[in-house]
Amino acid sequence: MQQDVQLGSPQTTAQAPAAAPVASAPVTTQAPQADASAPAAAPPAPAQDPKSAYDAAFGALKDGRYAESARLFQQFITQFPNDELTPNAYYWLGESYYVTQNYPVSLDTFRKLLAQYPNSQKAPDALLKVGYCQYEMKQWDQAQATLNQVLQQYPNSTVANLAQGRLRALRIEAQR
Fold this sequence. Notes:
11 helices; 78% helix; mainly alpha; disordered N terminus
């Protein structure tokens, strides 16, 4: 158990060099001191560098920890609003909501990406997902318009093929 505590301690005490020599003896007295300094040290720790913060959020998404992923992507967007990975963070944030069927929030997130980063490499995928969200929310006319917009703006692309498939499904839904 002490080894587990010591493994966690260097991360929190690396900023306080005096904590390392004492960590092997009074671990219980160290923890309150680390907790007292943690609020000051905690905000810089999540800030890390943009790539590490993004990778942590994306890792949570890949592992199926969608709520954690959403929290980490939101934190990334707040901390690094001008980073080159921010449009991707918006996309994956929207995807984390989409996967959990929170379509209204997902839709808003994809729309924010499109409004703030219209030339992003994620813009075609985000526009497709706007149509998907509208479809899932049974907003048939809006979904059809958005999916047709995908076809017009990104012809002969993967997103266009996916939009075609969803438009076929939409026509089937309309016949019901």
